[in-house]
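Quick one, tokens below. Sequence please?
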């Protein structure tokens, strides 16, 4: 299921992109490279102390401020200076994930997890990458028709039976990793911490993709917790995140034919949306969901993207703490 909400850890509102738009952004970006480099330096200065930990924080800062390519260049250099540092490798994996290079993202997260299998943040990041692959396989597993220009995205699993087998294997592993990260975050950061909540939300979405309607109550519970915390602290960024979770809930209802509950969840999403960007995102998504085509964004989001990237991400507003 295409996630319509903010993903923490330097990931944000996910929006479809077309090949033409991506090319236009690339052209504009090339013309502004010196300015972008200067902006990256100003937003994410070199760490005061020369260390792998400081380098990892700077990589994530660059990703959060939409400088994924700068993050990759800096992160690769840092990884050569501090080989085998799990948090640095994982941060570099996030940069590759943001850039759309799924293979490199997965490779770095796998290596980070191999070196630090008990680190809840690394488990969470690896689970997220695996869950994205489940999302890509789900339409094929359901027997949906894949447009000819996107078949290369599913070249290893064009048969629905093969896709279901691959999807279930990936999902089982992602589920275990999410469970481990949730337990670790709850113990060290608290049950209401944003990383705990986000890992719960992503795990609930994974369960909806796999188990259908019977998994929706789990997502309802997560949405209610997001709303409770957003209303308690009064933070616009948290309100937008809660709005995004209710959009996911609406999508889930609509996908399984519960139009009345979908409309109610959309109303909740609209009421919670605090910023103009989130309000526009809710309005745009509402049309798709209310038209009874709740899962179409998954295919549309990949149209024209040669690397099969699902989204163009924006920097997460207002996040704090370690990512």
């Amino acid at each position: 299921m295409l996630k319509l909400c903010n993903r923490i850890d330097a990931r944000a509102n996910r929006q479809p992109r077309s090949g033409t738009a991506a090319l236009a952004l690339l052209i504009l970006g090339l013309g502004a490279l010196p300015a972008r480099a200067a902006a990256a330096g100003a937003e994410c200065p070199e760490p005061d102390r020369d260390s792998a930990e400081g380098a990892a924080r700077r990589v994530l800062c660059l990703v959060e401020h939409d400088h994924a390519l700068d993050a990759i260049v800096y992160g690769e250099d840092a990884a050569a200076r501090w080989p085998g540092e799990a948090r640095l490798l994982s941060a570099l994996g996030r940069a590759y994930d943001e850039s759309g290079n799924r293979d490199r993202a997965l490779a770095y997260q796998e290596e980070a997890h191999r070196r630090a299998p008990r680190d809840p943040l690394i488990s969470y990041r690896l689970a997220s990458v695996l869950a994205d692959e489940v999302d890509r396989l789900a339409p094929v597993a359901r027997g949906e028709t894949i447009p000819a220009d996107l078949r290369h995205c599913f070249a290893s699993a064009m048969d629905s039976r093969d896709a279901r087998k691959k999807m279930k294997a990936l999902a089982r592993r992602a589920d275990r990793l999410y469970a481990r990260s949730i337990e670790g975050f709850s113990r060290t950061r608290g049950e209401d911490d944003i990383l705990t909540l986000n890992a719960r939300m992503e795990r609930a979405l994974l369960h909806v993709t796999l188990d259908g309607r019977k998994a929706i109550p789990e997502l309802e519970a997560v949405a209610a917790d997001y709303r409770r915390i957003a209303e308690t602290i009064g933070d616009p960024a948290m309100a937008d995140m809660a709005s995004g979770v209710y959009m996911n809930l609406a999508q889930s209802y609509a996908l399984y034919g519960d139009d009345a509950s979908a409309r109610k969840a959309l109303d909740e999403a609209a009421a919670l949306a605090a910023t103009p960007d989130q309000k526009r995102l809710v309005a745009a998504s509402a049309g798709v969901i209310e038209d009874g085509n709740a899962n179409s964004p998954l295919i549309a989001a990949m149209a024209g993207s040669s690397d099969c990237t699902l989204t163009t991400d924006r920097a997460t507003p207002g996040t704090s703490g370690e990512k």
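Residues 47-115 form a domain with the Serine Threonine Protein Phosphatase 5, Tetratricopeptide repeat fold (CATH 1.25.40.10). Residues 10-35, 297-305, 310-323 have pLDDT under 50 and may be disordered.
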